[in-house]
């Protein structure tokens, strides 16, 4: 082989080596980019992965803008907001009852999400068979005298044995959809007061209804009646697994 041919062969081999290195570098970059953008281990599309992050961010921003930190537990608000986005029918009022808190704390929050205002914060009683100071047992069964978790839509008002009251429709089958037949309503009660807390160490309890202090019954009912959403939360894995809303 002549010197010229050897030189040409060397140039060709160098060119081929450089081309191979560039190809390898580009391929490696594409693989890394793909894995970062579309993580292995699921069959969700890139859009499906991004949307929950954006949704959670919307929830976090609203939580911050309404200055709810220190007032409402974020887990309770996040679950309520998730259902609100799915079930809302152009009503900006969302009521959250957090039964992971004791009855000695104000654990009912009436929120106007459009105007980003907290309208009411109140004590609220749970069912007599749900627990003492804490509600730990929940039921959808007639005669259980327990509270039911989940999402409700408020109905019309009426005057009953407990005075001015508000009908509720349970929206989650098998979880709270027996609310009407169980007569689960919002009403006022003398046993829901700070006086009772001071004397017995907890609020009195209902037959399953979320009962309010007498002085707040009418203003709260008038604020939430007629189709707004109400959500009763507790840190209960069974509910979170069964719910098709959360």
Q: Which word captures the global form?
A: globular
Major beta-sheet overview: 8 strands, mixed
Estimated helix fraction: 25-40%
CATH topology of the largest domain: L,D-transpeptidase catalytic domain-like
Which whole number gives the mean pLDDT?
87
CATH architecture call of the largest domain: Beta Barrel
CATH superfamily of the largest domain: L,D-transpeptidase catalytic domain-like
Structural class from helices and strands?
alpha+beta
* Termini gap: 77 Å
Q: What is the C-alpha radius of gyration, as a whole number of Å? A: 29 Å
Broad CATH class of the largest domain: Mainly Beta
How many domains is the backbone divided into?
2
What do you see in this structure?
It is a single chain. The chain is of the alpha+beta class and about 250 residues long. It folds into 2 domains: about 1-35; about 45-240, L,D-transpeptidase catalytic domain-like (Beta Barrel). The protein has helices at about 5-35, 45-65, 75-85, 180, 195-200, 215-225, 235-240, and strands spanning about 95-100, 110, 115-120, 150-160, 165-170, 185-190, 210, 230-235. It has an 8-stranded mixed β-sheet. β4 (about 150-160) and β5 form a beta hairpin. α2 (about 45-65) packs across α3. The longest helix is centred in the N-terminal third of the chain and has 35 residues, at about 5-35. The chain is globular, with a radius of gyration of 29 Å. Residues about 40-50 have low confidence and may be disordered.
């Amino acid at each position: 082989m002549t010197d010229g041919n050897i030189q040409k062969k060397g140039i060709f081999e160098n060119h081929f080596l450089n081309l191979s290195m560039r190809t390898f570098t580009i391929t490696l970059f594409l693989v890394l980019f793909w894995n970062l953008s579309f993580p292995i281990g699921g069959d969700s599309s890139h859009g499906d992965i991004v949307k929950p992050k954006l949704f959670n961010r919307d929830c976090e921003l609203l939580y911050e803008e309404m200055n709810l930190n220190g007032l409402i537990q974020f887990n309770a608000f996040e679950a309520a907001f998730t259902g609100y986005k799915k079930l809302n029918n152009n009503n900006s009022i969302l009521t959250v009852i957090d039964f992971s808190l004791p009855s000695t704390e104000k654990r009912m929050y009436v929120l106007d999400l459009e105007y980003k205002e907290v309208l009411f914060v109140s004590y609220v009683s749970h069912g007599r068979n749900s627990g003492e100071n804490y509600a730990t047992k929940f039921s959808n069964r007639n005669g259980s005298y327990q509270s039911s978790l989940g999402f409700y839509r408020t109905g019309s008002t009426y005057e009953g044995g407990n005075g001015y009251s508000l009908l509720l429709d349970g929206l989650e089958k098998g979880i709270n959809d027996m609310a009407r037949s169980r007569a689960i309503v919002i009403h006022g009660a003398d046993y829901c007061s700070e006086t009772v807390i001071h004397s017995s160490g907890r609020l009195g309890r209902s037959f399953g209804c979320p009962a309010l202090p007498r002085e707040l019954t009418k203003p709260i009912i008038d604020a939430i009646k007629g189709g707004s959403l109400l959500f009763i939360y507790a840190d209960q894995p069974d509910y979170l697994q069964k719910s098709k809303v959360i």
